[in-house]
Every structure is written in C-alpha cells, then in structure tokens.
Design goal:
The mean pLDDT is 94. The protein contains eight helices and six strands. The protein has two domains: 126 residues, HAD superfamily/HAD-like (Rossmann fold, 3-Layer(aba) Sandwich); 64 residues. It has a six-stranded parallel beta sheet, sandwiched between helices. The protein is an alpha/beta fold. The longest helix has 15 residues. The N and C termini lie far apart (41 Å).
Length: 202
C-alpha cells in the first residue's frame, strides 16, 4: 500500500492569519516596554528610524531590522506583543485549517519570533529564511519545506496580490481574505484560474 503524501496549506501572516500588521504590534509593545523602563535613549532612536522611513530615506527592511535591534525580543516585550496579537488571530482562517485536514505552514516576511508562540505549526519567516521573505523567496522556501516533508501543496491563503508567486504554485484551492476588486483583477490577469479562487470573509 502506497502511503499518501501529507497535504499542506501555505498561509501568509500579516493581514491573513493575523488581522493587522505584526511589525506595528511589535513596535507598540516595544514602545510600551521601553517607556515603562524610562529608556528614553532607545525610544528616541526608534522614533528616528520610523521618521526616516516615513520620509522614504531608508528602506522598510532597514527600518525593520533597526527596530529589532533597538527593541529586542525579551520576555517582557514578547508578553506585551502576544497580548496584542493573540486576540487578532483570524478565527475564520484557523477554522479553515481545522476543517481541511492539511498541515498549515506560515510563509511570511514577518519576524519569526512574532509568529512563534502564537500558532502551533511550522513557520517559514524572517530572518531564518532571508532578510525579507517575499515573492519568489517565499516560493523557494516553501518548495524546500515540501520536499523535505514529502508533502504536497493543497492550498494557499493570503490577503494580497503581492503573493502572486505563491498563488501561481500548483495547488487545488486559493483562499483570499476579504479581497478587493482590484486584488481579484490583478490575480486573475496574472493567469490564476478563477475557478480555484475562494473568498474568505472575516
């Protein structure tokens, strides 16, 4: 008897499994923790990093890693972060996982420490899989995982057309979390079969 290959659902994190942006929540948690310590030096440097990004004088990636260096991932900060993030986990997406029988795998540009501890399944994220796990880098990371796990991709769940490379991978279903008409048009025009697209309202 031939063993059946494990099925996997690839899911984005920010805006998909998490209602909101994990970096913003991490920043809020970090500011609260540093304020409680009266660490005004780091608070000032964090403000500077955010202003530089707002003025487009630095990249998103550089700001992100600057914030990580200034805030860290100590237990006090992560407790504050989890308190903000846990209520924002998308229960409709979690229900989809429970009903599918497939293993969820998070594939995200978010920091892995902003995902670990919130969900009990594998995480492919920044920085272990690169400084910015986006686009084709997500596809490469997921393919490596599928090969190592002897698994096949059952579905992709995302909120954004930025994940077109993932959506173009061979799978049976593609779930879009509250997609706008513009997002749908962009995905369909890119050649993704409309019959495989499902809207997941939250």
């Amino acid at each position: 008897m031939v063993a059946r290959r494990k099925k996997v659902i690839a899911v984005d994190f920010d805006g998909t499994l998490l209602r909101g942006n994990s970096l913003q929540l991490y920043l809020r948690a970090g500011l609260a923790e540093l304020w409680s310590r009266r660490d005004f030096g780091r608070l000032f440097r964090i403000a500077g990093a955010v202003v530089l990004r707002r003025l487009k004088l630095t990249s998103h990636a550089r700001m992100k890693f600057t914030l990580r260096a200034l805030i860290g991932s100590g237990e006090g900060i992560m407790q504050r972060y989890r308190a903000l993030a846990e209520p924002r986990l998308n229960q409709k997406v979690m229900q989809l996982f429970a009903e599918s029988g497939a293993e969820p795998v998070v594939v995200s540009a978010a920091f892995s420490f902003c995902i670990d501890g919130l969900v009990p399944f594998p995480v492919l994220a920044t920085p272990a899989y690169g400084p910015e796990l986006r686009g084709e880098a997500k596809v490469a990371a997921l393919k490596r995982y599928l090969e190592a796990a002897d698994a096949r991709l059952e579905a992709v769940v995302t909120d954004s057309a930025d994940d077109l490379p993932l959506l173009k991978m061979r799978c049976e279903r593609r779930y879009l979390v509250v997609p706008s008409r513009r997002t749908l048009r962009r995905i369909i025009r890119a050649g993704v079969a409309e019959s495989t697209l499902y809207s997941l309202d939250t």
